[in-house]
Each structure stands twice: as C-alpha cells, then as structure tokens.
Amino acid sequence: MDTGEQRLRQAIGKTIRARRLMKNLTIERLADRSNVDDKYLSELERGKKNITLKTLFKLAAGLDLDNPSELLDDAKREAYPHMRNERN
C-alpha cells in the first residue's frame, strides 16, 4: 500500500540523490561532507528510512544549499505533482 508518508519518504530520497548526482558526489563523499553515516544516507536515498530535521540540515550543508527547504520543496513537487505551489 502506497501511503502519503511512503510517497514523501521516497520523494525526499529521490531528491537527495538527484542533488548529489548534480554535484557529482558519491554517497560516501556526501556522507563525509555532511557528517552522516553513508549506509544511512543510502537508505534515505532509497526511501527506506525517515529523515530527521538534523540530518536534513546536515545534507543541505553538504550539498552547498542555501536553505534546507530546497530539498523539501523539490520532494513536495515529486510526491505531489498535482499540487500547486501556493501560500495560504
């Protein structure tokens, strides 16, 4: 069964992987730059683990992003493509 939580977890993983590949980084290199375990990062990218806020911030820094919300915004678009990007 595909729940919203699973869909979002997979989208976040896919987003992290895409950003990592855009930077030409291996999992090991991004893990090192972010001070995150490489096996945990691999599981995140495959949508097998939930990400914590602390890890989100670490990975954003390791990817040289100005704001961790960039990862969340990309994941939201991936998980919910039918939603418009609006603010209430």
From TrEMBL:
The keyword DNA-binding applies. It comes from the Bacteria. Transmembrane segments: none annotated. Signal peptide: none annotated. GO terms for cellular component: cytosol. This is Xre family transcriptional regulator. Residues 16-71 form the HTH cro/C1-type domain. GO terms for molecular function: DNA binding; DNA-binding transcription factor activity. Keywords: DNA-binding. It comes from Scopulibacillus darangshiensis. InterPro entries: Cro/C1-type_HTH (IPR001387), Lambda_DNA-bd_dom_sf (IPR010982), TransReg_Diox_bact_type (IPR050807).
